[in-house]
Amino acid sequence: MKILVIEDEKKMALFIKRGLEEERYIVETAFDGQTGLEIALHNQFDAIVLDVMLPKRDGFAVLSALRGAGNATPVLMLTARGNTDDRVSGLDLGADDYMAKPFHFEELAARLRSIMRRSSPEKSTKMQCMDLILDTVAHVANRWGKEIELTTKEYALLEYLMRNKNRIISRSMITQHVWKHNFDPESNIIDVYIKRVRSKIERPGSPRILQSIRGVGYRMKEVISPDEDIIDDDDDI
Ligand code: CA
């Protein structure tokens, strides 16, 4: 899952980013309101952490421009301690929650999980495709009854594909949801990551669940007839 942090105090922004990355989120940062708004409008995020006091455009202006553009990404606002007016204004403008600084990172993470859950109640904490199970709270995958080690990026890619199980996902959708906005569309990095994920979640003799659809994209496929899509030893996994 992808989170945008808009916060001009670099120390604070990096503290949040590092913490969220440890929890396996893909994190982008913006250090002023204008840049943050542009990134938010041109990319898909699962949540935005938005500071109120920002250069160029403050958090309220960013939030109202976002909501005005029909963007419903869950927003957690960071307000100055004890400033009740800020909280009320934020909620009025469509923020999903607010937190006063300073805060404990664990609380920020918990509130983010909560607003993301609320925004998409159908998201359960476990996703399954055949016997591959993804735990979206612990951010681990399991198959053949054992845990599969995934890097942050591999996990994000797999989670996105699993969330859209049985649906063909184009490369540009993957770019939008899993990579950062400065991604080079010419690069073959998606293929590289698909291969890496496959090498971890599939093995010879088992059905191919992460399919390539030539010229279109990829699909996590659950319903597989017994005689198709079995991976041979010499297949390119
Ligand atoms: Ca600030």
Task: Describe, in plain words, how this protein is organized in 3D.
By secondary structure, the chain is of the alpha/beta class. The chain folds into 2 domains: 2-119, 3-Layer(aba) Sandwich (Rossmann fold), CATH 3.40.50; 126-235, Arc Repressor Mutant, subunit A (Orthogonal Bundle). Helices cover 38% and strands 21% of the residues. It has 8 helices and 12 strands. The chain has helices spanning 10-22, 33-42, 59-68, 84-92, 105-119, 152-163, 171-178, 189-201; strands spanning 2-6, 26-30, 47-51, 75-79, 97-100, 126-129, 132-135, 140-143, 146-148, 169-170, 210-213, 217-220. A 5-stranded parallel sheet has the order 2-1-3-4-5, sandwiched between helices. α2 (33-42) packs parallel to α3 and α6 crosses α8 (189-201). The longest helix has 15 residues, at 105-119. The radius of gyration is 20 Å and the shape is elongated. Calcium ion binds at residues 8-9, 51, 53-54.
Key traits:
38% helix; binds calcium ion; alpha/beta; 237 residues; 8 helices; 12 strands; four-stranded antiparallel β-sheet; 21% strand; single chain; five-stranded parallel β-sheet; Rossmann fold; Arc Repressor Mutant, subunit A
